[in-house]
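Hello forum,

I keep getting stuck at the same step: I have a sequence, I want structure tokens, and every attempt I make locally crashes halfway through. Rather than fight my setup again tonight, could one of you with a working pipeline run this one for me? It's a single chain of 299 residues.
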Amino acid sequence: MIKKFMVFAVTLLSTVGIISTVSTVDAYSEIGSITVALEDGVAGTSTEGVKFELIQVGNVVDGLYEYTEDFSDEKTDLNKVEKADEMEELAIRLNKIANENKITGISDITDNTGKIVFKELKVGIYLLRVTDYNEYEYVEPTLISIPTYDEDVQNSMNFDVTVIPKHTPFKVSVSKQDITTSKELPGAHLSLEDITTGKTVPVEEWISTDVPHMMKTLYANHVYRLTETIAPKGYKIAQSIQFKVEETGKIQEVIMYDELLPKKVKTGDNTDIAMYCCLGGLSFVLIGLAVFKKRKSEN
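Reply #2:
Ran it on my machine without issues. Output:
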């Protein structure tokens, strides 16, 4: 059975990020633990108050991994997963199954040091996922085995492991574009506010350039309002738009369009009017002269 653990656990070492030993045992053990330790994210994020959920997805039966009943529809053989990318894809699929079938596990929240300890865990495979990011960065769903292979001691397994999950900021690309050409529109004065709680919290102000503005300090599931305060010359100020930051490590795009101001239509040519006025005046003069000459000749 140790060999089976070693294949799966070695794959996890390259998938989760960093796994360090808390205790190492050579003999088979029924119980273990998982400690989650978050690394600091970008400025403005916090490792405290992040809610994790741990769901057992696999058991050990006769020395082989088998899915628990809740995940038995998954076709991937747990005993043949040997590559990190396969492990990552499997974690995403199992997380989807858990969401669709409302499967839950045990939950806890990180303390002020960014740590959680899940204790008294049976041997098997667990899905670790975030259910409330609070003010932290994105963390992919991760598979963890108990026990985990100890690289430092031959044929030895760790039943108490510490996991430092890989993380990445929630990235939002804000693009200011011409509504006709869909090209980037420099010179727009923009502001962003967090309106999640009903109160308006200023986040950032900037002037658009010829490339989208990338933001990496926004929080998952928060609602933001993007407002244009000054439009580029010749353009109308756009209406404010709202968007919600989704739980994904992919770049999320927000586009605000500007329309050109309507062109002023001339109702006539001032030069022609002046000319007509001159001609009219000249006509009155000529008529007056004609009348004067006629009266003079009559006299």
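The first strand starts at residue 17 and ends at 25. If your local run keeps crashing, start a new thread with the error log.
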